[in-house]
């Protein structure tokens, strides 16, 4: 009986390859729905960004809106609040950030930030505290008129969401 080193592919080899291909397609067909269900729901994707009209907010007024299930402060700051925020020395800040870094150029009067204290997620109260900004009633963190942490256990400033101005009175958050 002679032994061949290079046998020709036959019917058995074809069946192995065909069975492997069918098995791979079957595994992909079962795996795809499992992976696809991890994607965000359509209702979540719809809230990925919102547009908000600023024209109804008067100077010195704050409103709280909802974005992605989070409260967001939108504050129309006065000239005094802006000047006060710009005058703070960086050495006085726990989490140094200039007022210019916390607002958009040409729109310094608008401060938009997520309304959760960075300590434990409480919602700070506006127009309060030693710095005329926001104060967290739960643990005593105090933020200035630019949303920067000035006193208390919060480790960082109030978080700024991604946003852009579409016009002078319309902002897109997200």
Description:
It is built from three helices and ten strands, in the order ααβββαβββββββ. Helix content is 22%, strand content 24%. A four-stranded antiparallel sheet has the order 5-6-7-8, with no helix packed on it. The longest helix is centred in the N-terminal third of the chain and has 26 residues. By secondary structure, it is of the alpha+beta class. The mean pLDDT is 87.
N to C succession of SSEs: HHEEEHEEEEEEE
Q: Kindly report the average pLDDT value.
A: 87
| Number of β-strand runs | 10
Uncertain stretches: none
In short:
It contains three helices and ten strands. With 174 residues, it is of the alpha+beta class. The longest helix has 26 residues, at 11-36.
Q: What are the key terms here?
A:
three-stranded antiparallel β-sheet; 3 helices; single chain; alpha+beta; 174 residues
Give the helix/strand layout.
Blueprint: H1 11-36, H2 42-46, E1 50-53, E2 62-67, E3 70-76, H3 79-86, E4 110-114, E5 125-128, E6 133-135, E7 142-143, E8 149-151, E9 163-165, E10 170-173
Antiparallel strand pairs: 1-10, 2-3, 3-4, 5-6, 6-7, 7-8, 9-10
């Amino acid at each position: 009986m002679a032994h061949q080193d290079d046998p020709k592919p036959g019917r058995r080899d074809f069946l192995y390859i065909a069975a492997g291909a069918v098995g791979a397609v079957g595994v992909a067909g079962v795996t795809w729905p499992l992976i696809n269900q991890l994607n965000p729901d359509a209702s979540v994707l719809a809230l990925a960004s919102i547009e908000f009209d600023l024209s109804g907010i008067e100077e010195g007024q704050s409103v709280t809106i909802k974005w992605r299930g989070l409260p967001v402060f939108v504050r129309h700051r006065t000239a005094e609040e802006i000047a006060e925020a710009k005058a703070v020395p960086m050495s006085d800040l726990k989490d140094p950030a200039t007022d210019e870094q916390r607002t958009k150029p040409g729109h310094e009067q608008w401060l938009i930030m997520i309304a959760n204290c960075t300590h434990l997620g409480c919602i700070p109260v506006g127009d309060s505290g030693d710095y005329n900004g926001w104060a967290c009633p739960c643990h005593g963190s105090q933020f200035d008129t630019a949303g920067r942490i000035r006193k208390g256990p919060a480790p960082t400033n109030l978080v700024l969401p991604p946003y852009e101005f579409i016009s002078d009175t319309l902002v897109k958050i997200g």
